[in-house]
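User: Could you check the structure of this?
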Amino acid sequence: MLSLEHSLGRWHGFAFQNGLPIYPMLSFRFRVSPDHACYEATEVAADGTQYTVLGGYMLQCDDTVEYKFTWMYAMGLPKAYFSGIIDGDVGRLSGSWGFDEDDTPFQFLFFKDVPPEVVVARPLVFEFEENC
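Assistant: Sure, the predicted structure tokens are below.
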């Protein structure tokens, strides 16, 4: 049965463009929405700007679960749209994102239950690719 359980909890990670982080580390805690139909988070970014993340999930034809969420800033900055999958074995949420729901050319990578001081000290994605 499909559930929100895998998406709930504290996540830390980065949004990338061309293999480089474009913001300081992002952190949020997904909670079940009041109607139990989706998940949500409301946090404050490193620069003091409040943001809200709202998301849902869908079972794909190959039995993978796709998680989609929208990142909205209180200051009227553009919305960002994320789509990805969770690797439950390692607690990793990864996929693509962009400023248009139908065009998500950039990458993101978040980790669950990994302390933020560990996530922030990780090498960049392209360094992992070069050393694989």
